[in-house]
Write a structure and sequence with these properties.
Blueprint (H helix, E strand, L loop, with lengths): L3 H21 L14 H36 L2 H13 L5 H15 L19 H25 L14 H5 L2 H30 L5 H16 L4 H7 L9
Helix pairs in contact: 1-2, 1-8, 2-7, 3-4, 4-5, 5-7, 8-9
Length: about 240
């Protein structure tokens, strides 16, 4: 399901339409000198932010499959590295090299740090870009540390497992698909990030954003009909949420 923040954006957009329609119901009495909050311009703003939300949803949908595929690709790596490290610890390799290998293995597995995982877009087409951007960095680091680990064990004479999947060449063969997946996600995230920025500008920019326009509209209705009027209660009952920081 959508995150609470993403649901809040959608509610703000829907409530702008409701606010514009409510003001339209006031007829010719609703005649603000501030051109930005006329019924025509409120509806135009609603069209703009609705379009921006649609562009974001489309960009998110394009990211769904690659994000899922990368998650599947990276899923076996932690256990594979753990098995490899356990094999190394069973050999006569030096304590120093075993310590170095464990340090890299811990970075790969996220031991000693907060692990960040990428989430696929929700079924309704929303996505937390900040989370995905942060996890993108962690996936890149994971792949690079994996490569360093493989390069290290490849230099250890005593690291000579009989198990085919633990051999250094076999483990290294997994790196290229990991890097390719990261590169692809990086390209895909760019339009998602831009679409999110565009949508947020429309909703939250000072003065011209939906939140500030709604505030101005409500103030005008209070001035027009009175702060305790039925009309004022109608518009003040239409809630808008500021962007969560």
């Amino acid at each position: 399901m959508a995150s609470s923040s993403e649901s809040g954006h959608a509610v703000n957009i829907a409530h702008l339409k409701l606010l514009a329609d409510t003001c339209a119901g006031f007829g010719v009495k609703y005649n603000p000198s501030n051109g930005d909050i006329t019924v025509v311009n409120l509806k135009a703003k609603w069209t703009t932010v609705t379009t921006a939300q649609g562009v974001l949803t489309t960009a998110v949908e394009a990211s769904r499959e690659p994000i899922n595929l990368r998650t599947i690709l990276f899923a076996p790596i932690d256990k594979l590295v753990t098995r490899s490290l356990n094999f190394l610890n069973s050999t006569k390799a030096s304590a120093a090299v075993k310590k170095d290998a464990k340090g890299l293995a811990d970075k790969i597995r996220g031991i000693g740090s907060t692990k960040k995982t990428a989430s696929a877009p929700a079924a309704d087409g929303t996505i937390d870009v900040l989370t995905v951007s942060n996890s993108q960095q962690s996936y890149v680091q994971k792949a690079e540390n994996y490569l360093k680990y493989i390069e290290l064990i490849a230099t250890i004479v005593d690291y000579a497992p009989n198990e085919a999947d633990l051999k250094a060449p076999a483990m290294k063969a997994l790196y290229t698909p990991m890097k390719d997946a990261n590169d692809a996600i990086g390209t895909i995230l760019a339009p998602v990030d831009q679409a999110r920025l565009d949508r947020d500008h429309g909703l939250y920019d000072a003065d011209s954003g939906v939140i500030d326009l709604a505030k101005a509209c409500k103030q005008y209705v209070k001035a027009l009909f009175g702060a305790t009027s039925a009309e004022a209660k109608l518009v003040t009952g239409i809630k808008f949420s500021p962007k969560k920081k």
